């Protein structure tokens, strides 16, 4: 009986430790799996999304409780980077990418380039992430997969009813002030992303070459 009580105490202490340290342990796990996620260039042939030189078709989205169709209100003087990503709730690569973009938002602002992100998450989940990490650029909610489908980046590995149905192939689309797509960064491996400053350099080059 005494051994059984000791066993129960050990189990209870372990459960309490898990509850107390759950958030730090989760963050540690995320940091571990994302340690090598950033690359400097898009070096594969994977190329979904609108054709370079075509007009950006707009979105069917919500932001702060209202509908959004065009991205002009979020554009910088030189253009916009539209970042399609999977989830602010369960995808560690996506979360780290969006956090890094916030860390370098001042550089984008100084370059005259606006940042707009989009996920399929419920707006309440997006807001929790925004509040936790102090995200200052807009994260739009794709309505009924219409934006990602129209852009040609809806991940077709998932079907309606799957938890992940509605996620895009993660990537970045560069749009000039006239609404023309001038560049794209899409990597086939969802666990790899072009880092924020390299993406900014790419966007500046693409916009300059399109002038």
TrEMBL record:
Pfam families reported for this sequence: AhpC-TSA
UniProt xrefs under SUPFAM superfamilies: Thioredoxin-like
Domain Thioredoxin: 50-205
Molecular-function GO term, any one: antioxidant activity
TM stretches of this protein: none
Gene3D superfamilies the UniProt entry points to: Glutaredoxin
Protein name: Thioredoxin domain-containing protein
Source species: Seongchinamella sediminis
